[in-house]
Amino acid sequence: MALKFNGKYLKNFVSESEFEYLYPQIELCHNLLHSKSGAGNDFLGWLNLPFDYDKEEFEKIKKAANKIRSDSDVLVVIGIGGSYLGARAAIEFLGSEYYNELNELKIYFVGNNISPDYLNNIIKICEGKRLSVNVISKSGTTTEPALAFRVFKKLMEEKYGKEESAKRIYATTDKARGTLKNLADKEGYETFVIPDDVGGRYSVLTAVGLLPIAAAGFNIDKLMEGAQHAVKDFEVCSPDNDCYKYAAARNILYRKGKSIELMACYDPDWTKMNEWYKQLYGESEGKDHKGIFPASVIFSTDLHSMGQFVQDGSRTIFETVIDIKKPKTDFFLESDEENADGLNFLSNQNMSIVNEKAMQGTILAHCDGEVPNIKLELDAKDEHTLGYAIYFFEKACAISGYLIGVNPFNQPGVEAYKVNMFALLGKPGYEDQREELLKKLSD
Ligand code: PA5
Q1: Known active-site residue 418
Q2: Distant-in-sequence, close-in-space partners of 171: CB < 8 Å, separation ≥ 6
Q3: What was the pLDDT predicted at 295?
Q4: Residue among 354, 355, 396, 353 nearest 374 (CA)
Q5: Does residue 300 register a pLDDT over 90?
Q6: Which tens digit of pLDDT belongs to each residue from 165-178?
Q7: What global pTM score does this model have?
Q8: Rounded to an integer, what distance in angstroms lies between the CA atom of residue 373 and that of residue 368?
Q9: Does position 115 have pLDDT exceeding 90, yes or no?
Q10: Residue 334: which H helix or E strand, with range?
């Protein structure tokens, strides 16, 4: 198992019998999921995706990735939400938050905000560079990426002309429908498919994540292998299923008033995985005025900002610690003859040991402060472990959603801001809402 559930630090907060009492409900959720009879059952393509993916398209992805690596200095990835976070999280987990500084091919993500400064900075960075673009949108109509693509399409056509730019633009979208699919077909872009039955936040193991991850030089075969192992390890419902133990622990704590899950990792390369987790769980569980609020920190960095609150603030938090067992590299701390800084007590050992002690000390302190801790232990920072972890979190999320009685696969609440934004921007068809909103703003 590349990711293990460790419930040792839950002992003072959750008893074994609580897991036993919840188990029949876990079984029910498992059956709903696997018989495809629960809410949102038309979005379960992710469940067996690590085995059932389109092998031909997978080879096409690797070919396109190799082409991008050979003919480009910069890959601009355009997308938002589920069409953005997974790829970025994977690249930064495997390749560090300094991926761009450490690698020849630079990867920039746009279309995930509407900040003019952000866009102008990336355009500036792209000047004089050989470019490729991967535009990702299942619907093809999401405002943020559509706006960014309009800009980059023009930029590419001005730079390369229509014919060559069409060879450098890759569109990941619906297999048959939508504005982006129509445009891609008209312009002759190579296209990759987001399966109908895989929702955005569950799509990182489709072309949505795989093309940018492969272009970044990571081994997507190993990623899928890791996910396959997770499918196998978590396919049977039993009290020993670690994925279900995680879902159960979260649910038990939620019922005790712990309504915030703080995902904590002691490695900043997990930062964007935290963002991916927040979307996955936030969009899946936060419905009908229910759900655990997903929050995140990177320690020890955030112990110096959020540490006070976690230790001593309102007691609504439980913590899920991501313990990465093996860093990619280590750093030996030498002793210093003068010891002017008094740090020799840390020397003659690897920095990873110091980090581990910081983690152990913090977990104990937080447990003393009435913050239950779940520990999820990851083997390493590699593709196999990542694929395994992705599937673990996806499946635990589905079970968690069913446990609290929501549909984990829709996101009706996301529309509200869009309606208001379109109305305020004067989009045709939104005239009535516009009047109402303008009145509210002026009152
Ligand atoms: O999880 C989701 O469904 C969303 O986050 C979408 O991925 C996001 O809104 C982007 O949608 P689209 O891919 O249609 O542009």
Answers
A1: yes
A2: 134, 135, 136, 180, 181, 183, 184, 189, 190, 191, 192
A3: 98
A4: 396
A5: yes
A6: 999 999 999 999 99
A7: 0.96
A8: 10
A9: yes
A10: none
**How many secondary structure helices (H) and strands (E) does the chain include?**
17, 12
Task: Select which of 55, 304, 439, 440 is catalytic.
Answer: 304
Give yes or no for a contact between 254 and 14, defined as CB atoms under 8 angstroms apart.
Answer: no
Active site residue 304: yes
Tell me the CA–centroid distance for residue 350 and ligand 1, in Å. Answer: 42
**Mean predicted lDDT score pLDDT of the chain:** 97
CB-based pocket (< 6 A), ligand 1: 80-83, 137-139, 142, 145, 199-201, 283, 411
294 Cα to the center of ligand 1, angstroms: 18
CA distance 195 to 80: 17
Cα–Cα distance for residue pair 90/276, rounded to 1 Å? 9
Quote the distance between the C-alpha of residue 443 and its chain's center.
39
pLDDT tier at 443, thresholds 50, 70, 90: confident
Pocket test residue of 43, 80, 149, 206 for ligand 1, highest count of atoms within 8 A of CB:
80
Q: Give the Cα separation of 133 and 124 in Å (integer).
A: 15
Omega prior to 300 cis, within 30 of 0: yes
Residues shown for the chain: 443
Radius of gyration in angstroms for the set of CA atoms belonging to the chain, rounded to a whole number: 23
Decide: helix, strand or coil at residue 323.
strand
Q: Indicate the range of 49-53, 344-348, 410-414 predicted with least confidence.
A: 410-414
CB 245 within 8 A of CB 357: no
pLDDT of 307 reads: 97
353 pLDDT higher than 90: yes
CA-CA-CA-CA dihedral for 63, 66, 68, 71, to nearest 10: -120
Ligand 1 center from residue 50 Cα (angstroms): 21
Token output for 17? 């019998």
Q: How far is CA 159 from CA 156, 163, 187, 256, 285, in A?
A: 5, 11, 16, 59, 44
The CA distance from 385 to 219, in Å, is 12
- Which residues, 6+ apart, have CB-to-CB distance to 18 below 8 Å? 252
Decide if 246 contacts 399 (C-beta within 8 A).
Answer: no
- Mean pLDDT for 248-258 is 98
CA–CA distances in Å: residue 338 to residues 333, 334, 354: 15, 12, 21
